[in-house]
Amino acid sequence: MKIAMIGTGYVGLVSGACFAEFGVEVTCVDTHAEKIAALQAGKIPIFEPGLDALVQKNRARGSLQFTIDLKTALQGVEAVFIAVGTPSRRGDGHADVTFVMEAARAIARNLSGYAVVVMKSTVPVGTARKVAALIRKENPKAEFDVAANPEFLREGSAIGDFMRPDRVVIGTDSERAREVMRHLYRPLNLNETPLVFCACETAELAKYAANAFLATKITFINEIADLCEKTGANVQDVARAIGLDGRIGRKFLHAGPGYGGSCFPKDTLALIQTATDFKSPLKIVESVVAVNEARKKQMAERVIAACGGSVKGLTLAVLGLTFKPNTDDMREAASLAIVPALQAAGAQIRAFDPAGMEEAAKVLKNVNFCRAAHDAMQGSDAAVILTEWNEFRALDPARMAQALKKKVLVDLRNIYKPEEMKAAGLQYFSIGRP
Question: Which of the residues 18, 200, 263, 307 is marked catalytic?
Fold first, then answer.
């Protein structure tokens, strides 16, 4: 089976490499010649555990190729995926589908035989129908069907999510397209992965609804953490107690500085705008967005309070800058709100992140980037943990206490046990725990 993947960003590259691992012949296409040249040379533009090896393996065996030549890439394909970016549109929060429509026009110009045009990008409800209409207008003779096949990949564990998904959602009205998609995902039959067939609109909305619900869980437990601090309860124990309820589940119940990344912030905004357009407002999601934005600003205030009410003239070690571990993604990371706020309050910042410092340097100014966590802490007045990288979990409390002048550690991810930190002589502050 042969497919084309338009877009070599996070979704396109991961999806293309994973389909190639299934034995599908995959050609990834991008308009950026420099990016394609880098991929052809074996340079992976993003940090994702296991992706480098997967790409190299399938390039070596010929099942994964990269090109800027869409016409050649589309020859003989059974499916062509649109996996381009849909950033938030300035001014109103709607998902910008400009790149999606450009890809659809390019497909219309170059499609030579029947293929399923598959929407992998996260798009507003109704986009698949618009793509179909655009292709028919541009090329009335084109033979194709359209399907919506949203991705549910978590950065840092995307390959596992693709290979062992909870479900695969496929929206299409065409039985021919369903058969192509069934064949494409047949390797997942071994895992008995559910294939959820539905209308395009249902598939498009399911993606947004899933992300909005997960963002709601994160925001809910963050507010419960605040209440725990007022009442003397422990948010981790509360999360475990409610998470063991099968109706609730344990995932996404970890208190922290607020959600970020490439999906939740833009997808919640896009869903709100869609709901507004259809005059069916989503008050819960609106509240989630507002609370999350406010929380990031509040985290800087927590750090300042932990340092005695002022950080003017202090040097702070910031551990972790990316929005989550196992990625170099800085989009909407809590650090983008917290670090500038601390700088504005008079603090000097020394920072370390295992994978994200190159990206962080593009968006955070006047930060001293260090080679390791202990380098950042040595001689600093206090330390702040923003991202729960595994290597931070094994740091020696006694050594941290020795390195920090004021012996203040603000753990915004609750990765340490309070009693152990205090026993080492640290003034330890976490979230939602006594």
Answer: 263
The domain 208-289: what is its CATH number?
A: 1.10.1040.10
- Edge to edge, the sheet with strand 79-82 lists 64-67, 25-29, 2-6, 79-82, 115-119, 144-148, 168-171, 195-198
What type of residue sits at position 283?
A: K
Please state which CATH number belongs to domain 297-429.
3.40.50.720
Q: Which tens digits make up the pLDDT trace of 127-144?
A: 999 999 999 999 999 999
Fold: same for 2-197 and 297-429: yes
Biggest CA-to-CA distance, the chain: 75
In our burial notation (b when 16+ CB lie closer than 10 A, e otherwise), range 55-83 reads beebbeeebbbbbeebeebbeebbbbbbb
Q: How far is C-alpha 171 from the chain's CA centre?
A: 23
List for the chain the helix, strand, coil content (%; round to 5).
45, 15, 40
- Give pLDDT tens digits for 372-421: 999 999 999 999 999 999 999 999 999 999 999 999 999 999 999 999 99
Query: Any bridge partners for residue 133, and if so which?
Result: none
Q: Is 200 a residue of the active site?
A: no
Per residue in 148-158, pLDDT tens? 999 999 999 99
Q: CB under 8 Å to 186, separation ≥6 — which residues? A: none
